[in-house]
Amino acid sequence: MDFNPAELQHRLNEIIKDNVAASGWRKYSASRLTRTGAAVYMKQHGIFTRNSRQAWASVVGNCPVTEVRRFIVRENLYEEEAVEATSHFNMLVACGEALGLKAGDIVNAVPLPTTRVALHIWETLTKNRHWLIGCAAKATLEQANQPECGAVSQTEGERWMRMLGLTKEQVKFWIKHDELDQIHGSGAFDLVMRYLPKQQGILVDDIVTAVEDSIVAWKVFYDGIGEAADAADAAAKRAA
């Protein structure tokens, strides 16, 4: 059967969309979001954001293709870390401070067991695997922000303003995250589709498996935060 990038992308989008829709955090955020729960999210996502840059760096280190390396460095390393104004982590800290956290609360946050499990999966998928596998795994997480897969960041930004009373400036982490992922678009997946037919030993099924593993790790990560947010809310009520 001929390789069809559009058909493969549609298949991957469906896998991602199904897991995004079933996320425990999304259910929590949609119906019972509190500042206490949002603070839990900020701490865990701060861990994820820093790990994500390491995972992308591993993909770059494994990739000999200049075009791919340049795209990842420009879109996912330089703009998001080297430029202070567009650093996801800096914007996340600012959002956390609007919720009453201190920067140190986020910098020194302890990962939940579910966060640790997810990070281990992403490390496995990117550190010692073919770069196409790692690139597909990381592209999966950006694709969750595309409209066809759930537009996670845009939805959260609007919700945090509405339910938590935060301003657009205070939720810039969410809004800018969405804007940057729209700029990135499916760029990483586009590169996977372009180079997959040229790589011997890497099959379509390998890419599908990488995407499945990555989005399941994403769901584990988000489900754990949802459960921890519920527990934090319950503890706050008991203490009141």
Question: Summed up, what is this model?
Answer:
Helices cover 78% and strands 0% of the residues.
Would you write up a description of this structure?
The chain has one domain (5-234): Heme oxygenase-like (Heme Oxygenase, Chain A, Up-down Bundle). Helices cover 78% and strands 0% of the residues. It has helices at 5-21, 24-32, 35-62, 66-82, 88-98, 103-107, 113-127, 131-143, 152-164, 172-184, 187-195, 204-239. α1 packs parallel to α12, α2 (24-32) runs parallel beside α12 and α8 (131-143) packs across α12. 42% of the residues are buried.
Assign the CATH topology.
Heme Oxygenase, Chain A
CA-to-CA gap between the ends? 63 Å
- Main beta sheet: none
SSE-based structural type: mainly alpha
CATH architecture: Up-down Bundle
Give the ordered list of helices and strands.
HHHHHHHHHHHH
Pick out the low-confidence regions.
Answer: none
Strand content: under 5%
Helical region count? Answer: 12
Level-1 CATH class name: Mainly Alpha
Radius of gyration: 18 Å
Mean pLDDT, to the nearest integer, reads 90
What do we call the CATH homologous superfamily?
A: Heme oxygenase-like
> What's the total number of strands?
0
**Outline type:** globular
Work out the count of structural domains: 1
Fold topology:
Elements: H1 5-21, H2 24-32, H3 35-62, H4 66-82, H5 88-98, H6 103-107, H7 113-127, H8 131-143, H9 152-164, H10 172-184, H11 187-195, H12 204-239
